[in-house]
Design a protein that fits this description.
single chain; about 550 residues; alpha/beta; Rossmann fold; 8-stranded mixed β-sheet; 7-stranded parallel β-sheet; 21 helices; 21 strands; globular
């Protein structure tokens, strides 16, 4: 079997496949770093199991709708016909297919239907990014109920995951340890191994500091440096201010990242792209306007409320567009190999989200490539960047106090809260993080002819040279930007919203009403009455943009 399974596979894929074939387990968990090729491994295994008649149906479960198409296309390229459009209302699996691709949400919506589809054939179930089976107790129960009858189950993950102690991931084994319950991967392939074998690109982190100014609820004007804020509360306020799309920090970092992107494109990767990550949809729309103003080109904007999101991602993957602005739709599983630059302009700071998002820019295409991630120089993000090459176990914490997963995912609030007003932030290159070390450019150091020769080839520059390059470009940027840029940008951000913006904001308010109603036990109509008392005005269907924003912010202060 060894010669057969290793043909055309990376070494880790062949080893994992051979290990599976030696044991033929009912459940098998593969932990492989983003970009390593988990999809190829899983589809190769499916092919071998079909050839050996161990199975005759494949069901793939993924986190998002776009990944359904991505998996189906990858399977079709190997001659495996998986239906990515099979709805819960469609009934049985079509006889002219080998199976289908569905989402965790669809499984949770009708687990018994998926159980029947599983039982009606000898089925291999592939659970992609299996930590999503722990997104809620009902999701885990649905996955267990639907796929317990499967002949084989393959679980895939690319990053550490953590769930509450009463929400263990189905079909995953655990062992006791000093830190709690540790999940046991049957085969692991980490970022360090992938980097050594040139399966992924090395990542350098360009940390940007600068001074932020804001006003608190008492009317006091405060200021602090991102990289030297002192207390956690001050650091978070400075961070929130820097992320304000109307401020100078975001525009400056976008300009720096766009310059880096140009270097990469001119060095022989003309289709290289950049990804900008926002915290929420409204901010993403504002960031898109900033990118257009700074670069002169409108980015591709991907938000969950847009039914065209999947098609936009697919089109961007095949295009030569420079910029993609998104919230979470491009943070996990999405394979866009041409992404080489990432701007971390969001407030998320969990190891899971960080690794998934950075994983979007580490997919290697040729030698000497280096991914560049631009991020605020705040301690939580710098700690995550410094530990990129560390191996982490998959942990389920055992604690008497339940973790607040919402706090873990988003510990920094966005500008616009009632007790906080962002006034402005200046950006300045702080240092380069590479291999867990910080490299600071020498003061006054001029770029040499050798530096200039290799500007677009960061993989050939030493970390010290790369730091000097970024610092030099940063200084040039501050000198050359027109004084009117940010005034013009603020005018662009203040443009009247169209009906789509209003509709999206109404939906956001309605969703927050539902969350608050669920927490308080009050009806939706009662919550609406409370909101209209707190923020006077007509019903949401007739309310102005300003009233809807105020109501949204009022609700975020309670449910966020």
């Amino acid at each position: 079997m060894s010669a057969l399974v290793s043909r055309g596979l990376r070494q880790w894929q062949a080893e994992a496949l051979q290990q599976y074939w030696d044991t033929h387990p009912a459940d098998f968990l593969v932990s492989a770093t983003p970009g390593a090729g988990k999809t190829t491994f899983a589809l190769t295994l499916a092919e071998r199991l079909i050839e050996s008649r161990a199975i005759n149906r494949v069901i793939v479960v993924v986190p998002t709708d776009h990944l359904r198409t991505q998996w189906a296309d990858a399977a079709a390229a190997r001659g495996l016909n998986l239906d990515p459009k099979l709805a819960n209302s469609a009934g049985p699996v079509r006889k002219d297919t080998s199976g289908y691709v569905t989402t965790y949400a669809q499984v949770a919506g009708h687990p018994m239907l998926h159980r029947a589809r599983t039982q009606n054939a000898r089925t291999l179930v592939i659970l992609d990014e299996v930590h999503h089976a722990g997104d809620g107790l009902s999701w885990g129960e649905a996955v267990y109920e639907a796929f317990t009858p499967a002949q084989r189950r393959l679980c895939l993950t690319g990053t550490p995951f953590r769930t509450k102690e009463d929400e263990r991931i189905p079909f995953v084994r655990y062992e006791d340890s000093d830190d709690g319950l540790l999940s046991l991967a049957d085969y692991s392939y980490g970022y360090k191994e992938a980097l050594a074998e040139a399966v992924v690109r090395p990542v350098v982190f360009a940390a940007y500091s600068g001074t932020s100014r804001w006003m608190n609820s008492a009317g006091e004007v405060l200021s602090a440096s991102l990289s030297d804020a002192g207390t956690k509360a001050v650091e978070e306020a400075a961070w929130r201010t820097a992320l304000d799309p109307a401020g100078q920090w975001i525009a400056h970092v976008v300009a720096a990242a766009d310059s880096r992107l140009t270097d990469i494109r001119e060095s022989g990767s003309p289709d290289a792209g950049a990804l900008m990550l926002a915290t929420d949809q409204e901010t993403a729309r504002a960031y898109a306007k900033v990118v257009k103003k700074v670069t002169g080109q409108a980015p591709v904007l991907v938000v969950s409320d847009d039914p065209r999101s999947g098609k936009k991602i697919e089109a961007f993957t095949k295009s030569t567009d420079r910029w993609l602005v998104a919230v979470k739709q491009v943070s996990e599983g999405v394979d866009i190999a041409r992404l080489s630059v990432c701007v971390w302009a969001c407030s998320f700071r969990t190891p899971l989200f960080f690794a998934q998002a950075v994983g979007r820019v580490v997919r290697s295409r040729k030698p000497s490539e280096t991914a560049t991630v631009f991020l605020p120089a705040v301690r939580p993000l710098l700690a995550l960047a410094a530990s990129m090459e560390e191996e982490r176990n998959h942990v389920v914490r055992v604690s008497d106090k339940a973790d607040d997963l919402a706090d873990l995912e988003r510990l920094v609030s966005e500008p616009g809260e009632a007790d906080f007003t962002a006034l402005g932030a200046e950006a300045e290159f702080a240092h380069l993080l590479h291999g867990g070390r910080a490299f600071v450019a020498e003061v006054g150091r001029e770029l040499t002819d050798e530096d200039e020769e290799f500007l677009g080839l960061p993989g050939l520059l030493t970390p010290e040279q790369t730091a000097a390059l970024l610092a030099s470009r940063d200084a040039d940027l501050r000198k050359s930007k027109p004084a009117s840029l940010f005034d013009e940008m603020e005018e662009a951000l203040d443009e009247a919203p169209d009906w789509r913006d209003l509709d999206t904001l109404r939906k956001e308010v309605h969703g927050l009403v539902g969350q608050w109603a669920g927490r308080t036990g009050r009806s939706h109509s009662q919550v609406h009455v409370d909101i209209r008392k707190a923020v006077p005005g007509p019903p949401s269907a007739k309310a102005s943009w300003e009233v809807l924003v105020a109501r949204r912010d009022y609700l975020l202060g309670r449910v966020g």
